[in-house]
């Protein structure tokens, strides 16, 4: 277990904290680019409350609205242009993962004269690693990606059907202002996809990480158990603020480094899902719900003992011994059944994806990221035909 | 659950990382004050290796050695003076919790013209809260206090028999360089006291925090389980590097905010122990081993359900129902038995403390910290006679 950890984002986690946006922002700038997604924050009044708080603090607001799910590099370019034209010195992301991710890359694009797509890892010989960005404040309205308190962003290129990531320390938001009340209005399907996203962030590190990370294993299991328990409450009653708060907190720790510190693993399920949603307009969490159980069944045959631990500690199953594949597979089945019970798809057909392009999904995934043997990093590393086999098992 | 979290310390956790000290330090300064404790780092060569790495990176080294266990304000004053006289622009703490705590306060004293004791919370009307400090790099040689990655320090005043704390953001080390190999030489008794310190950090937040922190509960339980399991291995074989590494990692997460984020609780066991070790030269972790089980038995009667959860999740006991006091007390007994089994004292008599000064311990603890009703903060808040009762039960 050898690793480095650094996360300087200041977290303010508090119901009703949206009203503090102005007071928090004024420490970092005077002209804010306020980035939003579709119209929901405008319809429910959150946008107006945010603007009011900013203006009360004397901050001028420029706007970049319309960031789409699976945010596009064209949108990043557009936002970066607005920020420059309007002389913004601060970017505020008010929305879900796509809004926060786009805002982060806009912030780095501000100091880069090339095309921001250069920053997104897509198999180019030398990706541009940004080292400077405008300060970003994240105000998440959805519990899912954990982008509010990490240094990652995922961006799509609609022209090339590529969806990939950038990670750089300058992308850490200066502050994450997390107000769980803002997630009260999230509809059931998006709530469920968010739950799947959270759990998948955790399982990626848990199953693909190095051996010998007992603290992280416990943190991972605790995060999954809490997400399942409070996720069900949030789905049963969207106005259950305590449940919303716990799910949102779980989404943050799932990907701010606390759960996966030192695990140093690949994220193969994410990589495969990114290719699917580059070709098809699939919600990330829904795509993960299909890919993750299929990947788990494949990976469990290579390393059953970790999947037995998962079955035991998450679902209370008893493995007869550590390499009891039946117990491992039963745990995966329980997990898949849970995802389906909360309204997530678990087959590609539910996403209206058939086998026509399966070879291409595998090739594209490997084109974006592969190890020196040409395989997708993870445990086990996956060849193109492994990826195809996983996807076929989920048809 | 309403809270703020901020921890900008960069963590490098890696066996053999001591050799990187120079390379890491040179980013922050050119003249380092190297703070150490007793002679162990000199006897085992760690001091020489640290100096060699620093000098190779072109860093001049001034020295402040001899920081005692329960570090004294006189030592802080001495170190701050050396740093000024030698023109140091960086402080490196190479040692255990006392060395790291003293170094942090020296770093803040550098920018404060008054007496550094003003910073230590001891019941004065207006404690001085430092806002600026020299950069500090921590290199822990003991797994215990977690001081390497937090903003706290505990300092004693030998003249007034006071021992208390300061917490300020400027005290976050810029980097914690954690090399578990450095803890291989820690003797069994200190290893055991460190284990008790780690677990007590976790139980304080767990039992005194607000209700409704399910993620933190799981993190706490996972940290305790890991500390017990790997602590036993480290005690059985001090050269077991993996066990040493896991215990050290547990010591860091126990008090860097990851386990206790949002719990917002008091630390009554620490406050009581601080008074004991202000009067008697007791190792902090050994004092905690006596006070914690006694406090637990007192507190369990007020809030058995959390102690039942502890008994169930840590020791696998089954509570008949959530307020089953028998189950709670059995869990506490198991915990006390565990502490004794690894060589910790669990009675005041083992620390050679009798009941002569019990009233004064209670009064002094409350003088340093109390709520508006004059009680020691915690669940439940403790009056002076409560504190006496707890201490008498541990005689």
Walkthrough of the structure:
Two copies of one chain form a homodimer. In chain A, strand 7 and strand 8 (162-167) form a beta hairpin. A six-stranded parallel sheet of chain A has the order 2-9-6-5-3-4, with helices on both faces. Chain A has two domains: 10-183, 3-Layer(aba) Sandwich (Rossmann fold); 188-392, Dehydroquinate synthase-like - alpha domain (Dehydroquinate synthase-like, alpha domain). In chain A, helix 4 crosses helix 5 (97-109) and helix 13 crosses helix 14. In chain A, 46% of the residues lie in helices and 11% in strands. With 395 residues, chain A is of the alpha/beta class. The A-B interface holds A 1-15, 212, 214-215, 217-219, 221-223, 225-226, 229-230, 242, 245-246, 249-250, 253, 258, 262 and B 1-15, 212, 214-215, 217-219, 221-223, 225-226, 229-230, 242, 245-246, 249-250, 253, 258, 262. Strand 2 (10-13) of chain A pairs antiparallel with strand 1 (3-5) of chain B. Chains A, B: Keywords: Oxidoreductase. Chains A, B: Residues 8-180 form the Alcohol dehydrogenase iron-type/glycerol dehydrogenase GldA domain.
